[in-house]
Amino acid sequence: MKELYVAQIRERDQVNGQFLVREKITAMAKNGKPYLTLKLMDCTGEIEGRVWDRVEELSGLFDKDDFVRVAGKASVYLGKMQLVVQRLEKIAEQDVDLGDYLPVSGRPVEEMLAELRQLVASLETPHFRDLMEAFLADEEFLRLFAQAPAAKSIHHVYLGGLLEHSLAVAQLADDIGRRYPGVQRDLLLTGALLHDIGKVAELCYERSFGYTDTGKLLGHIVIGVEMVEAKLRQLGDFPVPAGLLLKHLLLSHHGQYEYGSPKRPKTLEAVILNYLDDLDSKINGVQTHLQKEPDNGAAWSGYHRIYDRYFFKKTGEQQTVAAEAPLAAQPVTAPPVEGEKSAKGRRQPAAKDRDLRFSLADQLQEKTLNLFAQLDEGDN
Predict the structure, then answer these.
(1) What's the domain range around 314?
(2) How many whole angstroms separate alpha carbon 191 and alpha carbon 249?
(3) What is the mean pLDDT of the segment spanning 12-37?
(4) What is the pLDDT confidence band of residue 315, given thresholds at 50, 70 and 90?
(5) For residue 274, what are the CA distances in angstroms to 30, 277, 281, 374?
(6) What CATH number should be reported for the domain holding residue 77?
(7) Domain co-membership, 164 together with 259
(8) Chain centre distance of CA 50
(9) So what's the pLDDT on residue 334?
(10) 68-83 pLDDT, tens digit each
(11) Based on the domain organization, do 201 and 238 belong to the same domain?
């Protein structure tokens, strides 16, 4: 049984605990000395580790995906907890419980599989229902689909995350399909359930989360289309036009070329799927970020590099209480301003590479402006 978890680590703690090494990178400091950057994880999260002294000696003791016991001091740097490693030793795999080290979905797998079967049973179009039942009958696929994370680092980064994300997008698609006329509900729902299935082969998740060789060479979109095509060939009598529209949903669900989408959405269902996939991914990403925040009473979260912002944490009852209090009694606490120095003289992270860090509002505005261009028949 682990005696210390990542979520329990606080600033200035003297840490002595066991972790899984998710990443191990050797770099060179400005003074010409080597140092190690580690990503140490367990089922509650991950923490960055830095080895500044005895680098070659300690580096030779372990590899990526090994279990290690680490001793060091925790500190907050640029809004993130960091562990300065002083001692380190490898732990034998037989001495650990894997369940202590890999994060797992909060939803029971059997509950999610039951929901999946209910959604498939609700399909009224025979060929879409037959296709989904073929996937359900594939025991090896179903095992991987229920085990895989939905991503390596952005959203639903835990065992069962892929199934949880697919179900969330499918439930949103089910609701949208019933609300708007002209939407082929069964096509949209099938596409929602299958849009990320290629991740069962793109990602590796037996130990830490990363990419397979197949994933790096092809990517989950191409892998997913190949998996769908293989099942369509098994069925034999699946209508060609329906198969074409379904594969377009998979090929275009990332929305834009710069997001890795081979095609941009050119059907109503494809546009809807793109937005719903993006919506669920971002909601989970923000929720995960807030869940990792220390319970220190601060009104604002730490800086989120991907979303390029801080998030306001005091919502719900706390927000109601603040709203009812006299204005003069409410303390004004603003988040640190990017690019300015903090009270300790440490420069906060400036907004860089904005083309890779689209905010929610900016991305929504851009997609709205480009919506008609995406649907243009002459668009490539």
Answers:
(1) 300-371
(2) 6
(3) 93
(4) low
(5) 43, 5, 11, 12
(6) 2.40.50.140
(7) yes
(8) 24
(9) 54
(10) 999 999 999 888 899 9
(11) yes
